[in-house]
User: What shape does this take?
Amino acid sequence: MGNAIPDSAKSGDPSARLVLHGSPPNGDTASSGSPFVAKVELFLRINGLDYDADVDWRGPKGKIPWITHGNVVLGDSTFIIDYLKNTYRSTTKIKEPETPMQKAINTACLHMCEDNLMYGIIYYQFAHPEGFLVTKQRLEARTPVPFRWILPALAQLQGQSILHKQGLGRHSDKDVSFILSSSLSALSTYLGNGKYFFGDAPCETDCIAFAFLDQYLHDEACAAGGTLVKQFPNLKDFVDRLRARYFPEARPSKLKTAGARKARGGWTVLLLVGSGVSCLAAAAIVCSRR
Ligand SMILES: N[C@@H](CCC(=O)N[C@@H](CS)C(=O)NCC(=O)O)C(=O)O
Assistant: This one.
Protein backbone atom coordinates (compact mmCIF):
# COMPACT_ATOMS: atom_id res chain seq x y z
CA MET A 1 0.00 0.00 0.00
CA GLY A 2 1.36 3.48 -0.85
CA ASN A 3 1.40 6.45 1.49
CA ALA A 4 -2.05 7.10 2.87
CA ILE A 5 -3.09 10.72 2.53
CA PRO A 6 -5.76 12.66 4.36
CA ASP A 7 -9.18 12.74 2.73
CA SER A 8 -8.78 16.44 2.31
CA ALA A 9 -6.04 15.88 -0.30
CA LYS A 10 -7.16 17.80 -3.32
CA SER A 11 -5.58 16.24 -6.38
CA GLY A 12 -2.94 13.87 -7.71
CA ASP A 13 -0.83 13.15 -10.77
CA PRO A 14 -3.15 12.62 -13.77
CA SER A 15 -0.63 10.26 -15.40
CA ALA A 16 -0.50 7.85 -12.42
CA ARG A 17 -2.02 4.37 -12.66
CA LEU A 18 -5.50 4.27 -11.14
CA VAL A 19 -6.85 1.14 -9.45
CA LEU A 20 -10.39 0.80 -8.10
CA HIS A 21 -10.60 -1.72 -5.27
CA GLY A 22 -13.94 -3.27 -4.42
CA SER A 23 -16.09 -6.37 -4.49
CA PRO A 24 -17.38 -8.29 -7.53
CA PRO A 25 -20.99 -8.03 -8.78
CA ASN A 26 -23.88 -9.57 -6.84
CA GLY A 27 -26.23 -11.49 -9.11
CA ASP A 28 -26.73 -9.44 -12.27
CA THR A 29 -25.68 -6.02 -10.97
CA ALA A 30 -23.95 -3.94 -13.64
CA SER A 31 -20.98 -3.24 -11.41
CA SER A 32 -19.86 -4.27 -7.94
CA GLY A 33 -22.22 -5.77 -5.35
CA SER A 34 -21.32 -2.68 -3.32
CA PRO A 35 -23.32 0.32 -4.58
CA PHE A 36 -20.56 2.64 -3.33
CA VAL A 37 -18.08 0.90 -5.63
CA ALA A 38 -20.60 0.91 -8.49
CA LYS A 39 -21.02 4.68 -8.04
CA VAL A 40 -17.28 5.23 -8.56
CA GLU A 41 -17.02 2.80 -11.48
CA LEU A 42 -19.87 4.59 -13.27
CA PHE A 43 -18.16 7.93 -12.61
CA LEU A 44 -14.96 6.58 -14.20
CA ARG A 45 -16.85 5.36 -17.24
CA ILE A 46 -18.83 8.55 -17.75
CA ASN A 47 -15.55 10.46 -17.75
CA GLY A 48 -13.71 7.96 -19.94
CA LEU A 49 -10.96 7.57 -17.32
CA ASP A 50 -8.65 4.60 -17.62
CA TYR A 51 -8.51 2.31 -14.57
CA ASP A 52 -7.80 -1.18 -13.39
CA ALA A 53 -9.88 -3.00 -10.81
CA ASP A 54 -9.19 -5.54 -8.11
CA VAL A 55 -11.17 -7.35 -5.47
CA ASP A 56 -9.82 -6.21 -2.13
CA TRP A 57 -11.64 -5.05 1.00
CA ARG A 58 -8.60 -3.86 2.92
CA GLY A 59 -8.82 -0.15 2.21
CA PRO A 60 -7.51 2.61 4.46
CA LYS A 61 -10.81 2.70 6.37
CA GLY A 62 -11.62 -0.99 6.15
CA LYS A 63 -14.38 -0.24 3.66
CA ILE A 64 -14.86 -0.38 -0.09
CA PRO A 65 -14.44 1.40 -2.42
CA TRP A 66 -10.91 2.64 -2.16
CA ILE A 67 -8.44 3.63 -4.83
CA THR A 68 -4.73 3.60 -5.32
CA HIS A 69 -3.48 6.28 -7.67
CA GLY A 70 0.28 6.28 -7.89
CA ASN A 71 1.29 6.70 -4.25
CA VAL A 72 -2.10 8.04 -3.19
CA VAL A 73 -4.44 5.73 -1.27
CA LEU A 74 -7.95 7.02 -0.68
CA GLY A 75 -11.20 5.61 0.71
CA ASP A 76 -14.86 6.71 0.55
CA SER A 77 -16.75 7.05 -2.72
CA THR A 78 -17.56 10.75 -2.27
CA PHE A 79 -13.96 11.70 -1.41
CA ILE A 80 -12.71 9.56 -4.30
CA ILE A 81 -14.99 11.32 -6.79
CA ASP A 82 -13.95 14.76 -5.47
CA TYR A 83 -10.30 13.77 -5.78
CA LEU A 84 -10.79 12.48 -9.34
CA LYS A 85 -12.67 15.62 -10.37
CA ASN A 86 -9.79 17.73 -9.07
CA THR A 87 -7.12 15.53 -10.62
CA TYR A 88 -8.70 15.32 -14.07
CA ARG A 89 -10.37 18.73 -13.97
CA SER A 90 -9.53 19.62 -17.56
CA THR A 91 -10.89 16.39 -19.04
CA THR A 92 -13.87 15.32 -16.91
CA LYS A 93 -17.15 15.24 -18.79
CA ILE A 94 -19.48 15.01 -15.83
CA LYS A 95 -21.93 17.87 -15.37
CA GLU A 96 -21.66 19.83 -12.12
CA PRO A 97 -24.79 21.08 -10.30
CA GLU A 98 -25.33 24.60 -11.57
CA THR A 99 -27.63 26.17 -9.01
CA PRO A 100 -27.88 26.05 -5.21
CA MET A 101 -31.10 24.07 -5.69
CA GLN A 102 -29.31 21.44 -7.83
CA LYS A 103 -26.58 21.20 -5.19
CA ALA A 104 -29.23 20.69 -2.53
CA ILE A 105 -30.95 18.01 -4.64
CA ASN A 106 -27.64 16.20 -5.09
CA THR A 107 -27.07 16.19 -1.32
CA ALA A 108 -30.64 15.04 -0.65
CA CYS A 109 -30.34 12.20 -3.18
CA LEU A 110 -26.98 11.18 -1.71
CA HIS A 111 -28.43 10.81 1.75
CA MET A 112 -31.62 9.11 0.57
CA CYS A 113 -29.52 6.53 -1.24
CA GLU A 114 -26.56 6.12 1.10
CA ASP A 115 -28.35 6.53 4.44
CA ASN A 116 -31.77 5.09 3.64
CA LEU A 117 -31.84 2.84 0.56
CA MET A 118 -28.53 1.30 1.72
CA TYR A 119 -30.20 -0.06 4.84
CA GLY A 120 -32.95 -1.40 2.58
CA ILE A 121 -30.30 -3.46 0.80
CA ILE A 122 -29.04 -4.86 4.12
CA TYR A 123 -32.66 -5.55 5.09
CA TYR A 124 -33.39 -7.52 1.91
CA GLN A 125 -30.10 -9.40 1.97
CA PHE A 126 -30.11 -10.36 5.65
CA ALA A 127 -33.52 -9.90 7.25
CA HIS A 128 -36.00 -10.67 4.47
CA PRO A 129 -36.61 -14.45 4.37
CA GLU A 130 -36.45 -14.83 0.56
CA GLY A 131 -33.56 -12.42 0.18
CA PHE A 132 -31.58 -14.12 2.92
CA LEU A 133 -31.98 -17.49 1.20
CA VAL A 134 -30.11 -16.02 -1.79
CA THR A 135 -27.49 -14.46 0.48
CA LYS A 136 -27.04 -17.75 2.32
CA GLN A 137 -26.44 -19.70 -0.89
CA ARG A 138 -24.03 -17.02 -2.05
CA LEU A 139 -22.02 -17.12 1.18
CA GLU A 140 -21.98 -20.91 1.23
CA ALA A 141 -20.63 -21.01 -2.31
CA ARG A 142 -17.83 -18.59 -1.42
CA THR A 143 -16.80 -20.13 1.90
CA PRO A 144 -14.85 -23.31 2.53
CA VAL A 145 -16.02 -26.05 4.90
CA PRO A 146 -16.26 -25.84 7.94
CA PHE A 147 -16.85 -22.04 7.92
CA ARG A 148 -19.67 -22.62 5.41
CA TRP A 149 -21.81 -24.14 8.17
CA ILE A 150 -21.59 -21.17 10.50
CA LEU A 151 -20.78 -18.08 8.44
CA PRO A 152 -24.26 -17.44 6.92
CA ALA A 153 -25.88 -17.54 10.37
CA LEU A 154 -23.26 -15.18 11.81
CA ALA A 155 -23.57 -12.84 8.85
CA GLN A 156 -27.34 -12.81 9.29
CA LEU A 157 -27.01 -11.95 12.98
CA GLN A 158 -24.58 -9.18 12.10
CA GLY A 159 -26.94 -7.80 9.43
CA GLN A 160 -29.88 -7.92 11.85
CA SER A 161 -27.82 -6.23 14.55
CA ILE A 162 -26.92 -3.37 12.17
CA LEU A 163 -30.57 -2.99 11.18
CA HIS A 164 -31.74 -3.04 14.77
CA LYS A 165 -29.30 -0.30 15.78
CA GLN A 166 -30.17 1.84 12.77
CA GLY A 167 -33.88 1.28 13.39
CA LEU A 168 -35.15 -0.16 10.10
CA GLY A 169 -34.96 -3.64 11.60
CA ARG A 170 -37.60 -2.75 14.17
CA HIS A 171 -40.36 -2.31 11.56
CA SER A 172 -42.74 -4.72 9.85
CA ASP A 173 -42.05 -5.60 6.22
CA LYS A 174 -44.97 -3.40 5.16
CA ASP A 175 -43.56 -0.40 7.02
CA VAL A 176 -40.05 -1.01 5.61
CA SER A 177 -41.61 -0.92 2.12
CA PHE A 178 -43.35 2.32 3.01
CA ILE A 179 -40.13 3.94 4.28
CA LEU A 180 -38.07 2.87 1.25
CA SER A 181 -40.83 3.83 -1.20
CA SER A 182 -40.83 7.38 0.14
CA SER A 183 -37.18 7.76 -0.91
CA LEU A 184 -37.85 6.07 -4.26
CA SER A 185 -40.80 8.36 -4.85
CA ALA A 186 -38.65 11.43 -4.16
CA LEU A 187 -35.94 10.18 -6.54
CA SER A 188 -38.59 9.55 -9.18
CA THR A 189 -39.97 13.08 -8.74
CA TYR A 190 -36.51 14.67 -8.98
CA LEU A 191 -35.73 12.70 -12.14
CA GLY A 192 -39.11 13.42 -13.74
CA ASN A 193 -39.10 12.91 -17.50
CA GLY A 194 -35.44 13.83 -17.81
CA LYS A 195 -32.82 11.57 -19.28
CA TYR A 196 -30.54 12.38 -16.34
CA PHE A 197 -31.13 14.20 -13.06
CA PHE A 198 -30.01 17.59 -14.31
CA GLY A 199 -30.76 17.52 -18.01
CA ASP A 200 -29.09 15.86 -20.97
CA ALA A 201 -25.66 15.16 -19.46
CA PRO A 202 -24.94 12.82 -16.54
CA CYS A 203 -23.88 14.24 -13.19
CA GLU A 204 -22.77 12.81 -9.84
CA THR A 205 -26.40 12.40 -8.72
CA ASP A 206 -26.88 9.96 -11.62
CA CYS A 207 -23.90 7.89 -10.42
CA ILE A 208 -25.34 7.71 -6.91
CA ALA A 209 -28.94 6.92 -7.89
CA PHE A 210 -27.92 4.39 -10.55
CA ALA A 211 -25.68 2.46 -8.16
CA PHE A 212 -28.44 1.91 -5.59
CA LEU A 213 -31.35 1.39 -7.99
CA ASP A 214 -29.37 -1.12 -10.04
CA GLN A 215 -28.73 -3.08 -6.85
CA TYR A 216 -32.44 -3.19 -6.03
CA LEU A 217 -33.32 -4.22 -9.58
CA HIS A 218 -30.56 -6.70 -10.36
CA ASP A 219 -29.39 -8.35 -7.16
CA GLU A 220 -31.90 -11.19 -6.76
CA ALA A 221 -31.41 -11.04 -2.98
CA CYS A 222 -33.07 -7.60 -3.20
CA ALA A 223 -35.89 -8.75 -5.49
CA ALA A 224 -38.61 -7.53 -3.12
CA GLY A 225 -36.95 -4.09 -3.20
CA GLY A 226 -36.79 -4.31 -7.00
CA THR A 227 -40.57 -4.68 -7.01
CA LEU A 228 -40.80 -1.35 -5.18
CA VAL A 229 -38.52 0.35 -7.75
CA LYS A 230 -40.63 -0.99 -10.63
CA GLN A 231 -43.56 1.02 -9.30
CA PHE A 232 -41.65 4.05 -10.64
CA PRO A 233 -41.20 3.34 -14.39
CA ASN A 234 -38.95 6.38 -14.91
CA LEU A 235 -36.45 4.94 -12.38
CA LYS A 236 -36.40 1.55 -14.09
CA ASP A 237 -35.98 3.18 -17.54
CA PHE A 238 -33.16 5.31 -16.13
CA VAL A 239 -31.30 2.22 -14.91
CA ASP A 240 -31.85 0.37 -18.22
CA ARG A 241 -30.55 3.39 -20.14
CA LEU A 242 -27.38 3.76 -18.08
CA ARG A 243 -26.67 0.04 -18.11
CA ALA A 244 -26.92 -0.02 -21.91
CA ARG A 245 -24.73 3.04 -22.31
CA TYR A 246 -22.02 2.52 -19.68
CA PHE A 247 -22.03 -1.22 -18.97
CA PRO A 248 -22.81 -2.82 -22.36
CA GLU A 249 -22.27 -6.59 -22.65
CA ALA A 250 -19.13 -5.97 -24.65
CA ARG A 251 -17.65 -3.83 -21.86
CA PRO A 252 -18.67 -5.40 -18.55
CA SER A 253 -17.63 -4.05 -15.17
CA LYS A 254 -13.94 -4.51 -14.51
CA LEU A 255 -14.90 -5.85 -11.07
CA LYS A 256 -16.51 -8.80 -12.87
CA THR A 257 -13.22 -10.09 -14.19
CA ALA A 258 -10.88 -8.64 -11.55
CA GLY A 259 -8.90 -11.17 -9.57
CA ALA A 260 -9.01 -11.24 -5.79
CA ARG A 261 -5.80 -10.88 -3.82
CA LYS A 262 -5.48 -14.61 -3.13
CA ALA A 263 -3.24 -14.30 -0.09
CA ARG A 264 -5.94 -12.31 1.64
CA GLY A 265 -8.70 -14.92 1.22
CA GLY A 266 -7.95 -16.62 4.54
CA TRP A 267 -7.90 -13.29 6.29
CA THR A 268 -11.30 -12.44 4.85
CA VAL A 269 -12.83 -15.59 6.29
CA LEU A 270 -11.16 -14.98 9.65
CA LEU A 271 -12.33 -11.37 9.68
CA LEU A 272 -15.89 -12.36 8.81
CA VAL A 273 -15.97 -15.07 11.46
CA GLY A 274 -14.30 -12.75 13.97
CA SER A 275 -16.73 -9.94 13.35
CA GLY A 276 -19.60 -12.42 13.41
CA VAL A 277 -18.54 -13.70 16.81
CA SER A 278 -18.14 -10.16 18.09
CA CYS A 279 -21.68 -9.37 17.09
CA LEU A 280 -23.17 -12.35 18.93
CA ALA A 281 -23.52 -10.18 22.00
CA ALA A 282 -25.37 -7.57 19.96
CA ALA A 283 -27.51 -10.30 18.47
CA ALA A 284 -28.43 -11.49 21.94
CA ILE A 285 -29.73 -7.99 22.64
CA VAL A 286 -31.74 -8.01 19.41
CA CYS A 287 -33.28 -11.37 20.22
CA SER A 288 -34.04 -10.53 23.82
CA ARG A 289 -36.03 -7.46 22.72
CA ARG A 290 -38.29 -9.32 20.32
N1 LIG B 1 -19.24 6.21 3.02
C1 LIG B 1 -18.61 5.09 2.37
C2 LIG B 1 -19.44 3.84 2.61
C3 LIG B 1 -18.76 2.59 2.05
C4 LIG B 1 -19.37 1.31 2.61
O1 LIG B 1 -20.13 1.32 3.58
N2 LIG B 1 -19.01 0.19 1.99
C5 LIG B 1 -19.45 -1.08 2.51
C6 LIG B 1 -19.76 -2.02 1.36
S1 LIG B 1 -21.28 -1.61 0.57
C7 LIG B 1 -18.33 -1.70 3.32
O2 LIG B 1 -17.19 -1.60 2.96
N3 LIG B 1 -18.68 -2.37 4.42
C8 LIG B 1 -17.72 -3.06 5.24
C9 LIG B 1 -17.75 -2.61 6.67
O3 LIG B 1 -18.57 -1.75 7.02
O4 LIG B 1 -16.96 -3.14 7.43
C10 LIG B 1 -18.44 5.40 0.89
O5 LIG B 1 -19.16 6.26 0.36
O6 LIG B 1 -17.55 4.81 0.27
In short: Strands lie at 3-4, 18-22, 52-55, 66-69, 72-75. Residues 100-127 form the longest helix (28 residues). Residues 34, 36, 62-65, 76-78 surround glutathione (CB under 6 Å).
